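Narrative of activities, Objective 1.

The group set out to show that a structural description can be obtained from nothing but a protein's sequence at a throughput compatible with the screening campaign. Below is one input-output pair from the validation batch, recorded exactly as produced.
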Amino acid sequence: MIPNHVRQKLRAGTPSVGSWLNLGSPISAEAKAAIGYEIEHVDAVRKIDDLLSVPGLDACYTGPNDLCASFGLAPSTEPADVEFEAMMQALLASARRHGVIPGIHCATPAYANRRIAERWRLVGITNDLRFVTAGAQASRGAIKV
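Output recorded for this entry:
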């Protein structure tokens, strides 16, 4: 069996930021796959202990924008709402209780660093469209016309 270095690092408590960026092939992606839930609805947070106690579950991952929308909060990739933060801390505490790797999507490095300090272990940062757009804008801005 191919060793799953990403899973080993996460289980050891080492944060993983952008693990998918160094996948060399579909075979390596499959070898690094984990079993997890996306927690993106308020009803999932309300039943978080039931969900995260399922045997064999490796990780959970949440997207703030969708979770906010389901809770009736303004959609945001970095919400400042007290209600949202309470949901995040409940999710994080449940993941720790059940030995599940907690994951969260972050829009900026500062937000990612904050969540890593809280012991979130699977941290996504922005998305491919924003990276490509930022790179294109930087290149265009560097051209002297």
